[in-house]
Amino acid sequence: TQFISAELTEDQLELLLESLERKIVSQQLNLVRTQITLGSFQGEAGDMLLSFQHKEEQMLTIALVELSGVQLQEDGSAVPRDKPFEAMAALFVALYALNFLSG
Q1: Which of 15, 50, 55, 79 has the CB geometry, 3.0–4.6 Å to 64, for a possible disulfide?
Q2: Which residues touch 17 (CB under 8 Å, ≥6 apart)?
Q3: Domain contains 5
Q4: pTM across the whole model
Q5: Pick from 76, 77, 61, 66: which is nearest to 24 by CA?
Q6: Count of domains in the chain?
Q7: pLDDT averaged over consecutive 10-residue blocks of the chain (103 residues)?
Q8: How large is the C-alpha radius of gyration of the chain?
């Protein structure tokens, strides 16, 4: 069994704080969950990005996901870089915990 270990960067933590303040953590959680579940990092991201009310929220989410190793573009296409699964898993756990705690 291989132990997966990844940590969030300081930049990601700052973006998570801003996401929490904007109350968009649950939307980001759904997006990341979908990307991990699909495994291919392609498909439904475009529709999910369009669900954000403001362009700033969309751009914040794109930046957060890109720091986890996935090039996520506004049209919904996504390209993994440098084996992003571990970093996306760490992001998923952080988003899940924030979503749970913010109730």
Answers
A1: 15
A2: none
A3: no
A4: 0.80
A5: 61
A6: 1
A7: 63 94 94 73 62 88 87 68 77 93 87
A8: 13
